[in-house]
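Weekly puzzle thread! Below is a chain. First person to post its structure in token form gets bragging rights.
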Amino acid sequence: HAESASNAQIRVIVLLGNRQIPSTTTIINDNLVRIHFIPQEPGIHTVHVSCANQPIEGSPFSIRVERPRAIQISGECFHRLRLNDLGLFRIHCHGQRGPIQTKIFNLSAGDRYDIGQTISFQLHDTYEQLIQFSAQILLTSFNILLATRLKVIQERIRNVTLSKENGRTTVSFQLYETPTQTTTNEQIIQNLRHLINNQILNLHDPNRCILNTIIGSVVVGPKGEPVNVKLFPQASGDYTGEFTPTKIGQHRIDITFANIPVQGSPFFTEVYDPSQVRIGPLPRDIIVNTENTFEINLDNAGNVPLEIKISSPTGVNVPNFKYASLQSVITGQG
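Winning reply:
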């Protein structure tokens, strides 16, 4: 906070020992300056803050930076999961504190034009500053402004929402493709990154006050149908998560800690429906020592973990069984 002096006179140097750590200074308003730096290794960092070449009271400030333990994920739902079964997983934080986010997408649902791609970015402006406005007016104006800045029709930008993360505002929306489009989603995302990283997106609130975007905050989700997921904090500091898939197909699970993907993320799981496996027709009369075939249709069942076992009337397994043109490991009886 710089209430008694020009914020243009504020100078900050971050040191690890005698080595200077890169930092940026952002003027938020007449009384507030935000300093941003990313420590690359553990150790005692000192932050020297001066105003008009004079150290401010308390400067330099010491910050202990420790090397974090890797956040670990466990759960039996990360490979295969039956349709409509509850998928459970646990996020092991090892005592570390930070915001956890989990997003799940069904990558196999819909086609190119009926599924939006989730895009988000952050603002320096607080969530409390923005929710004082009418939600309908604010979100409608964001929709119009984003379409204008990104030079696309409004129909391609839908479901604009605001949420709170670490006291900051996250703006999210879904970007759709259309049959008559002239620019791809990838080109629009590249343009959004350019506008935000150069601080020229120029969103504003209903009072026409410019909102400050955070450089490098664009997060791009996969093209897929969002799946509802819930997180529950535990007394140990860990989190448990749960979701229930309602459609078959490959699902992608993105988990971040402190806005950084955890080790192994994204995770993938195949959702299958064994009730949709179709077999037939089976041969009724066959001759010993002749090759016979039958078909198993998995079109609406997904990547089902099946096993095929054929045994004789005396219980002896038929040897040299072969199968082909199947996308999953097949198991079953014949």
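Puzzle host: Confirmed. Bonus trivia for everyone else. The mean pLDDT is 85.
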